[in-house]
Amino acid sequence: MILHIHLSILFSYITFFHLISITLAQSENYIIRMNLSAMPKPFTNHHTWYQSTLSSALQNSQFTTTTNNLNSLISSKFIYTYTHVINGFSANLSPKEHELLKTSPGYISSIPDLPVKLDTTYSPQFLGLNPNKGAWHDSNFGNDVIVGLIDTGVWPESDSFKDHGMTEIPSKWKGQCENSIHFKKSLCNKKLIGAKFFNKGLLAQNPNASLGLNSTRDTEGHGTHTSSTAAGSRVDKASFFGYAAGTASGIASNSRVAMYKAIWVDGRLSSDIIAAIDAAISDGVDVLSLSFGINDVSLYEDPVAIATFAAMEKGVFVTTSAGNEGPAHRTIHNGTPWVITVAAGTMNRDFQGTLTLGNGSKIVGLSLYIGKFPSNNFPIVFMGSCDNVRELKKVKNKIVVCEDKNGTSVYDQLRNLVEAKSFGGVLISNVSDASFTQNFAFIVVNPINGEIVKAYIKSHNYNSKKSSSIANLSFKKTVFGTKPAPSVDSYSSRGPSKSCPFVLKPDITAPGTSILAAWPSNVLVSYLGTKEAFSSFNMISGTSMACPHVAGIAALLKGAHRDWSPAAIRSAIMTTSDIFDNTKEHIKDIDDNKDATPLALGAGHVNPNRALDPGLVYDVGVQDYVNLLCALNFTQQNITAITGSSFNDCSKPSLDLNYPSFIAFFNGGNSSKTLHEFHRTVTNVGEGKTIYTASITPTKGFSVSVIPNKLVFHEKNEKLSFKLRIEVERMAKLKKVSFGYLSWMDVKHVVRSPIVVTTMKMNS
Ligand SMILES: *[C@@H]1O[C@H](CO)[C@@H](O)[C@H](O)[C@H]1NC(C)=O
Ligand SMILES: *[C@@H]1O[C@H](CO)[C@@H](O)[C@H](O)[C@H]1NC(C)=O
Ligand SMILES: *[C@@H]1O[C@H](CO)[C@@H](O)[C@H](O)[C@H]1NC(C)=O
Ligand SMILES: *[C@@H]1O[C@H](CO)[C@@H](O)[C@H](O)[C@H]1NC(C)=O
Ligand SMILES: *[C@@H]1O[C@H](CO)[C@@H](O)[C@H](O)[C@H]1NC(C)=O
Ligand SMILES: *[C@@H]1O[C@H](CO)[C@@H](O)[C@H](O)[C@H]1NC(C)=O
Ligand SMILES: *[C@@H]1O[C@H](CO)[C@@H](O)[C@H](O)[C@H]1NC(C)=O
Ligand SMILES: *[C@@H]1O[C@H](CO)[C@@H](O)[C@H](O)[C@H]1NC(C)=O
Ligand SMILES: *[C@@H]1O[C@H](CO)[C@@H](O)[C@H](O)[C@H]1NC(C)=O
Ligand SMILES: *[C@@H]1O[C@H](CO)[C@@H](O)[C@H](O)[C@H]1NC(C)=O
C-alpha cells in the first residue's frame, strides 16, 4: 500500500526486506492531541516540544541512529503543528512508533487521519434577496464579513472575484495570499483576501500523490464554484452555454473570500483539512464553509467535528454539507451538534429542449445540451430501449427515440447512442436530472408525452421504407416558475445523525441542484461529442453547492448582527425557514413525491430575509455541548479529544440540547416509554415587550403539548423556558417517521421548530 520514499532514501543502507518489515508498509498519519499544560519548562513553544516528543518516540522505536539521520527522519515524519483546532500535531507513524508516542509525557489521545468525502445565478432571487430591503440591504451585502472555505482552491481571475467598488480589507484580518505556482499573491484583491494551501499530510501518506498543481490555484473547479456561490461579486451576462443566462451573484456579494486549499486531485486528508481550519481561525474568518465530511465515525474520532468545536468556541460560524448519499435514512455526515448541516433542494427552474413533430405538435422536455443542432426537419424513428448498438448504427442522420424501460438506464442508452454515432435523440423517461444530456443532442420527455411521440411515429409508418415521420429539435431554453419548488432532492443525505441521533439533522435545506457559479476557464466542464468544452461558469449539483449558500446567508446575518453567537445565527436560519413550496403545499421529497420529513428537509428551506428578524433564538453555550457529550456516555478522555479541556464538567449531563428542533425515539415502536419531555430556553432578540403563544401542528399518533403555552417577555435579551411533552396516543400503529411543528408566535414573528417522532432504533 503506502511506500515511503523519504525513508527508503534515508535508510538505503538497510536491506530492502528489513525496511519493509520495520516501517514501510504500515506507516499511517495520525492526529495527536497533547496536553499543553504538561509542557516541561525548558520548552519555549509548543512546536519544539511536539518535535522533541516525536523525536524521543522515534529514538526509542528505532535502532540507534545518528543525529543527522534523526533530524531528517523527524522532518519526514512530522506533518503539522496545530494551534487552534487542537493542541497537538500530526505525524506519519508505524504502529510501533505510534504505541511509543502514546507513552510520551503530555500525550492525550490520537486519531487516524481519515479521508473526507467531497459533496459534489439565479439562486439569490429564488431566495427572495432584494437590494432595496431585507438581508442584502440590512447587512450591506455582508460587507466586511470574511467567509473562509476549505476546498480545491480558487481561480482568482474569475469575474466573480473582481473587487470593483469594495472598501478596504477589514483591519482585523490577519491572513494573506501566499505565492504559489501560477498564483502570485498580487492576484488577490479586496474581494479575494486569503489564499493558502495544505498538502503535507497527503504527501506524508502518499509521496507520489498527484497534486494537480502545488498551489492554491483551483485545477478542479469545485472551490471556485463554492466560494463564488457564498460570496462572489455580481457578474452580468453569466450563463452555462446559454442556459440559466443572467446576472450571477454570490449570496453575500460584499463579503470577503479566503480560500484554504486542502482538497487535492489525489486525496482529501483530515490532517491537511484541520491545518487549513487552524489557519482560518487564526487569520480571523467569521464564517467557514465545509462542503465535505466523513461518514460513520464517532464525534471524538471525527477530525472535522473536533476542529469545528474549536471554531465554534472562537465564535466562527461553521456550515457543512449533509452529503450526497440519500435518499436512505442515516446517510448523513456532519451530523455534529455544533455546526449547521445543510441538505440540498431544487429551484423553480428547468432547462429545456423542444421536439417539434411533423404534424406541428410541440413536445417540451428536459435538456442541457450545450452544442448547436441544425434546425431543419429530420426523419424520426422509435428504437425501443436503444440497447442494440448495431441497429442504432443503421439509423444515422435520424432523430432516435428511446424508451427508459425494463432496466436499460438512460445512461446505458446514452452510451449506446454515442457509440453508434447517432445524431440526436429523445429519451422517454421519468428522470428529473437531465445534466447527462450536456454532450449529446438529447431531450428527455416524460412517459405521457412519450406516448404522443410514439403514436405520431406509428401513424406515419415508421417501420416502412416510406416512413414520412419527421421532426426537429431545438435547445437552450430556461423556464422559471416550474412547480412544485423547492423540493428536497433525492441525493441529499438523510438523518438521523449516527454520531449524535439526539439532535435532529439535517438542520436546513438550501438550493443545491443545478447551481450556476464561477469555474476555472481551463477546467473541463463537459464534452461536446468527443470535443472538450470549457466555460467560465458551470452548473453542478450537490449538498456541496447548498452549503455555501448558507455560508453566504450566515455572512449576511453576521453583517447585520455582529453580536450573535454561532448558535443564535443557526437558530435564526432554522426557525424562520419555509416549509411550503410554490404550490402552497408542504415541501416535497423528490424521492417519493410525499411531504419531505425533517429528516430530509431539516427545519425547512432557508429564507434569508426572515432570518434577519427571528424574534426568538435558541442559544447554546460551550458547556451545553459538554453536557451533551457527557450524556452520550463518552469517557472523559473522549470528551477531552473534542473539547481539549483537561477537565470537562459532567455534573449536569443532558441529551436535551437547547436546539431549535426536536427528535424523540420510541425504539422499535416497542419501548415501554410512552412520554418524552424536552426543556428549552428561548432568548428574545426582538424589540422588548412582547407575548408569544405556542401553536402545535399535530404529529400523527402523538399528543404534543407545551408548558407554559404563553411566554411574556418584558425586555430584549430576556430568556424564558418551556417544556415540550410528547405522549404516545396509540403504540399499536405508529409510523416509522411522524412529524409536526411547534411555532411560537407574537404579532410579528413565527418561530417554528420541527418535531420528529420516530420508531427507528436509535443506533442500528
Ligand atoms: C513513487 O514513485 C517512485 C518513482 O517513480 C516509484 O519508484 C515508487 O514505486 C512510487 N511509489 C508508489 C507508492 O507508487
Ligand atoms: C509546494 O510548494 C511549497 C512552497 O510553495 C514547497 O515548500 C513544497 O515543497 C512544494 N511541494 C511539492 C510537492 O512540490
Ligand atoms: C420544425 O418542424 C415544424 C413542423 O414540421 C415546422 O413547422 C418548422 O418549420 C420546423 N422548423 C424548421 C426550422 O424546419
Ligand atoms: C423485461 O425484462 C424481463 C427480463 O429481462 C422480461 O421477462 C419482461 O418481459 C420484460 N418486460 C417488458 C415490458 O419488456
Ligand atoms: C414514471 O412515473 C409514473 C408515475 O409516477 C409511473 O406510473 C411509471 O411507471 C414511471 N415509469 C417508469 C418508466 O419508471
Ligand atoms: C400529432 O400526432 C400526435 C400523435 O398521433 C397527436 O397526439 C397530436 O395531436 C398530433 N398533433 C396535431 C397538431 O395534430
Ligand atoms: C448512558 O448510560 C446510562 C447508565 O448506564 C444509561 O441509562 C443511558 O441510556 C446511556 N446513554 C446513552 C446515550 O447511551
Ligand atoms: C475514547 O475512549 C476510549 C475508552 O477510554 C479510549 O480507548 C479511546 O482511545 C478514546 N478515544 C479518543 C479519541 O479519545
Ligand atoms: C494536563 O496536565 C496538567 C498538568 O500536568 C494536569 O493537571 C491535567 O490533568 C492534564 N490533563 C489531561 C487531560 O491529561
Ligand atoms: C415488540 O415486542 C414484542 C414482544 O417483545 C415483539 O413480539 C414485537 O415484534 C415487537 N415489535 C416491534 C415493532 O419491534
TrEMBL record:
Catalytic-site annotation from UniProt: 151 (charge relay system), 222 (charge relay system), 544 (charge relay system)
Gene Ontology terms, MF aspect: serine-type endopeptidase activity
Keywords: Apoplast, Glycoprotein, Hydrolase, Protease, Secreted, Serine protease, Signal
Pfam families linked: fn3_6, Inhibitor_I9, Peptidase_S8
Principal subcellular localization: secreted
Secretion signal, residue range per the UniProt entry: 1-25
Domain (Subtilisin-like protease fibronectin type-III) ranges: 656-757
Domain named Inhibitor I9: residues: 29-118
Compartments, record wording: Secreted, Extracellular space, Apoplast
Role noted for this protein: Required for arbuscular mycorrhiza (AM) development during AM symbiosis with AM fungi (e.g. Glomeromycota intraradices).
Family the entry assigns: Belongs to the peptidase S8 family.
Protein name: Subtilisin-like protease
